[in-house]
Write a structure and sequence with these properties.
The model is unreliable at about 135-140 (pLDDT under 50). Helices cover about 40% and strands about 10% of the residues. The chain starts with a strand and ends in a 9-residue tail after the last helix. The longest helix is centred in the last third of the chain and has 15 residues, at about 245-260. The protein is globular. Strands 1-2-3-4-5-6-7-8 form an 8-stranded parallel β-sheet. It has helices spanning about 25-30, 45-55, 70-85, 95-100, 110-115, 150-160, 175-185, 195-200, 210-220, 235-240, 245-260; strands at about 5, 35-40, 60-65, 90-95, 120-125, 165-170, 190, 225. Helix 3 (about 70-85) runs parallel beside helix 5 (about 110-115). The protein is of the alpha/beta class. The chain has 11 helices and 8 strands. Helix 6 (about 150-160) links the parallel strand 5 and strand 6 (about 165-170).
């Protein structure tokens, strides 16, 4: 079995990971022998929870921060502080939940800061039918279809910021073909495997998770694909018809490099 880093896991599952029979996250990590596991924040409260969790388990967890694009200066100042301490290793962006456009110039300071700090941006990609999920705990939040995050917007960002390390979650979801093409064009654009089963069964025709991963590796290679969980498991990669080196890239090497996991946290 290859070494494993799960780069896509939310802090709210610390006490009950829904993709592992609602058992605590640390049991999931131990069961699969994860070397490291991401914990992702989706709001300010969760930022603090991520900081606390990484400080408690610095050898097992690394943080991916929420940036409040509607309070940019304060949010980026906090990001800088905790990147310096090695607690935050990247940023998670969700335009649909947080009401912004991916290619809006008002968002560019996030990309510029991530380039400066040399950390990746993990973006949710793909259409989700949820109108009742509120990542910011605001009862008046309105979810706009225009804020889903469309492929052309990500292409615009990568053309303007080719140095940006952009991880597109869920293989782009229902936009897979477009994101696959962007990965071919932009060497700093990555695809993650989180929650692939959700989108795989919605493909026409449906595909297996293994077939999907094998196809992506055939087109862009293994260096731009990163393992994320949410119901995708290490065994799904191990079962793929890939070389051992390709499996190790996906399960371990790419995340370790992108998130600089050799560097210790200062807790």
């Amino acid at each position: 079995m290859s070494k494993v880093i799960d780069s896509h896991c939310h802090i709210f599952v610390m006490n009950g990971y829904e993709f592992f029979k609602d058992r605590p996250l640390m049991e999931y990590i131990d069961h699969f022998g994860m070397e490291k596991n991401a914990v992702i924040a989706c709001n300010e409260r969760e930022n603090d929870e991520v900081i606390e969790a990484v400080q408690k388990y610095p050898d097992k967890l690394f943080g991916i921060a929420y940036v409040n694009v509607h309070d940019m200066d304060n949010s980026l100042a906090k990001l800088r502080e905790y990147v310096k301490r090695g607690i935050f290793r990247g940023v998670k962006m969700h335009p649909y939940c947080n009401d912004f456009q991916v290619d809006d110039p008002a968002i560019f300071p996030v990309y510029e800061t991530c380039i400066e700090l040399d950390i990746p941006v993990l973006y949710h990609t793909g259409w989700l039918n949820f109108s009742d999920i509120d990542a910011n705990n605001k009862s008046d939040n309105v979810y706009k279809y225009s804020c889903i995050g469309f492929p052309v917007q990500f292409g615009t960002v990568m053309e303007k910021f080719p140095e940006l390390k952009l991880i597109c979650a869920h293989f782009g979801g229902n936009f897979y073909q477009e994101f696959l093409g962007m990965a071919e064009r932009f060497p700093n654009l990555y695809l993650d495997t989180a929650w692939l089963a959700h989108y795989a069964e919605r493909m026409m025709p449906p595909v297996s998770v293994q077939e999907w991963i094998e196809h992506a590796v055939k087109i862009v290679g293994s260096k731009q694909i990163i393992f994320g969980g949410e119901g995708t498991y290490p065994i799904d990669i191990e079962r793929c018809r890939l070389t051992q080196e390709e499996k190790e890239d996906i399960l371990y090497n790419n995340a370790k490099r992108l998130y600089k996991l050799d560097r210790k946290s200062v807790v």
